[in-house]
Amino acid sequence: MKVSSTEKIALEVTRMNGKNIIKKTYLDLIEDKAKNKYFAEKYEQCKLGFYFSEGLERLKYLEKKYTDVESLKKALATLKQKNDKKNDAYDIFKKNHKELSDSINGFVAYCDVNAKSTNDDGKSYYSEKEGKRCIAKAFIRQNAWVMNIIQYLINLKEKEEKDMYENVAYGVKRALMYFKKPNEQFNILSERHIKSIAEYYGVEMYNSKNEFCFDEELRMLFEESIKEELEKENISEENYTSIYSNIIYEHRKEWEIMVDTSLLEANKNVILTGAPGTGKTYLAKQMAAKMIGCNLEKLENNDQFGFVQFHPSYDYTDFVEGLRPKQIGDTVGFELYDGIFKKFCKKAFENAFEKQSENYVFIIDEINRGEISKILGELFFSIDPGYRGTSGTIKTQYANMQAGEDFAGKFFVPENVYIIGTMNDIDRSVESMDFAFRRRFAFEEIKAEDTAENILYGLSDDCDMAYKKMQAINDTLTNMGLTDCYHIGASYFLKVELYKNKSKNKWKCLWNYHLKGTLYEYFRGEPDAEEKIKLLKDAYDSGIPKK
Questions:
Q1: pLDDT digits over 87-110, tens only?
Q2: How many domains does the chain have?
């Protein structure tokens, strides 16, 4: 995954923009400390001493007090027992190792915003403790925190300094490193967050020697931006990263969802096309979250978000409106019901008057699996970006049954509604799309290589191998005369995790149970199909494209 010269230029431009963002955000926070109580308290504390000094003291206490390796190993073994309703390993650990449990939880409370422990009365103690200062939202389960810190304490006695973090989870490792060297290490614990932040500010995660340099690069960028201001305020260098992190999290919505929504903003209607497994649906949801201004995790429950998946039996009555049976006394009658999209547009229109800036995003997954003309009917006109709002009002098929309200007997798509469709145009089971519909959408092709890095990032040690195998298959398909539409997306390779601990050869399982069948469909009926599959298998096994 080499970085081209064009990408380097783009990175530098992002970095320059990042400096301006940092400076402006800092000045805004200083000016508006009264409205940001958390920042104000933190800022004033940073003038007095190390902000996380109590957390550091708790860590030093752990390192000094708990040196009996055999006792620590027994505690760790208790935590690793299989949990069930009758045998909660964490509760047993807290009962049998109460002092150790309380000591570790006292430190964890300064690391993880979700850290909890309870007093005898059952009330949360550490999470509600006055003055508690969490260093990051790591979202690591508390028993995982405890297990990893015990492992760290064992390593201190059994390992050399360079191996003190061996078998310690990434997030916990970074928390410990931060307390050790707060003037060098950022208190950003999540690997996913680090990657997003690096992209947002335009800094490198690894140098030319493939050494991790994120903290150094980011600190340098921030110092270029506001070090002079911090020196004037007499802020100690050991607190710089604490201030910097606060600024970083001010932009969480921006750096957490790094997707380009400019095409959607300009056209209102966008369809993402591409090869199978390229993460089109996930990308569509990311775009929706960014347009709405919420976290991806909270998207599904957001009133400004709608989702439907088309299929061959889906029709106008499901999407717009139609008659549904209703029990009326002893007889069955019919009542007119709004479809999912009409309900969504009503809601967007009603709320537009109160909050005109709010965007509403509706995703139609597998948009060409349905019969478009049957589903949309007269909506062909109103979804056109040039006819949004009341000026694009059309009469519905059931207009004679309705009267009174804005949407009664008619339909229009409000200007604050954005539509994202996804489609795989090589799938043999889908409907073709007519030109009238295509004209109303902007089409963006999502290639396998475009999303591979983000999708495969979570595979950790298997990431490079998966990428190599994917590229080998796709280059071989290209050599066979197939277009990018037939490439295999990175999502297929995530399935290798299914066989990580269940098979001696996870890559063989991935090929046999997931890739082979899909690729065979490309060549079904061709006389040399078996030969082509064998060639693709060789490319997959070796990681080298075949001709």
A1: 467 778 888 888 998 889 888 888
A2: 3
